[in-house]
Amino acid sequence: LIETTFFSSVQDRVLLVEDKIRSKADGHNHTLAAALNHLLSSGGKRIRVVVTLLAGKMIQADPDRLITLAAAIEALHTATLVHDDLIDGALIRRGIPTLNAQWSPAATVLTGDFIFAQAAKLAAETESIDVMRLFSETLATIVNGEITQLFSSKWTANRENYYRRIYAKTASLFETAAAATVLLTSESANYYELLRQYGYEIGMAFQMVDDILDFTGEQATMGKPVASDLRQGLITLPAIYYLESNPKEQYLQEMLESNFTDEERIGKLLASIRSSGAIQKSLNEANQAIGRGLQALNKLPETPERHALEDLAHYIVEREI
Ligand code: IPE
Ligand code: IPE
Ligand code: MG
Ligand code: MG
After folding, report:
1. Atom of ligand 1 nearest to the CA of 45
2. What percent of the chain has a predicted confidence (pLDDT) above 70?
3. What is the mean pLDDT of residues 140-163?
4. Is any atom of ligand 2 closer than 6 Å to the C-beta of 229?
């Protein structure tokens, strides 16, 4: 859990959100309950939950439906991580073994499916058809992004393509976390668009920072594998900037053409990228996105929650996990 002021103001309600998700395993196979407990007790920053709770309170959405909406968002996020770790073959997340590290692929896929089902149920429990529609559209966007990535063997390392990918995998859910709250009120479309923009920008920045931390972070701090994107043939923003400034870089070019297996070369390439200006350029870009998010936020009602959402936006680029 994050030790910050923006977090402490919603801490009690975050616990209610977790209880709500946990209760969804009641009456089902005990393995599903155990998996859900394992996932929820391992922590996670709950950043999307906090976005929903703060945005909703700022615009005076009904508190009970807000808890349900936040639970739906976090359940969707959790389910995508279960499947993502299986797909990536990642054995550790939030500092503990992933489900796929302990169970068969079949059991892992089914558990992910179960959590997706509960996310849909929670979305339905908000009693808003618009929330349900937005949920299914967001999940379709995420899956479409992931499968596009899977079937593109060699990434054309350009920024436009990168922005599309990170919108799909991450920013789309942040958009929904922020904007869906408006669907629980009788507020104008104006609030929807502003919160959507805020969610979009902090979500884009969030994934840029995740991609930077894959180069600069440590597994012990992050609780998940680092230096893994390039190894998987995934070209992210720091590598794109690096390639733009070093178009003749032989390792990276060769890697793009081969199968990313030469461990010594990957090590050298990682070191080159880490010590290049590409990291700072990427961070600057994340900061610019945060700036645009804050501009949108500024037009929303000035309440304590709005200030907390400002702090949350700053936290996204300052975080180390
Ligand atoms: C991880 O999200 C997946 C990405 C979109 C990068 P988080 O970094 O929010 O994961 P948890 O929930 O805090 O573990
Ligand atoms: C998470 O992206 C994938 C989805 C949200 C679908 P990453 O692969 O970058 O997340 P981590 O780095 O494993 O947390
Ligand atoms: Mg992953
Ligand atoms: Mg990552």
Report:
1. 13
2. 94
3. 85
4. no
Q: Which of 84, 91, 83 is nearest to 111 (CA)?
A: 83
Q: Tell which phi-psi region holds residue 44, choosing left (phi > 0), alpha (psi between -120 and 50) or beta.
A: left
pLDDT in tens, 254-273: 666 666 567 788 888 899 99
Minimum-distance ligand 2 atom for the alpha carbon of 85: 13
Please write down the HEC assignment for all residues of the chain. Answer: CCCCHHHHCCHHHHHHHHHHHHHHHCCCCHHHHHHHHHHHHCCCCCHHHHHHHHHHHHCCCCHHHHHHHHHHHHHHHHHHHHHHHHHHCCCEECCEECHHHHCCHHHHHHHHHHHHHHHHHHHHHCCCHHHHHHHHHHHHHHHHHHHHHHHCCCCCCCHHHHHHHHHHHHHHHHHHHHHHHHHHCCCCHHHHHHHHHHHHHHHHHHHHHHHHHHHHCCHHHHCCCCCCCHHHCCCCHHHHHHHHHCCCCHHHHHHHHCCCCCHHHHHHHHHHHHCCCHHHHHHHHHHHHHHHHHHHHHCCCCCHHHHHHHHHHHHHHHCCC
Q: Which residues are within 5 Å of ligand 4 (an ion), measured at CB? A: 210
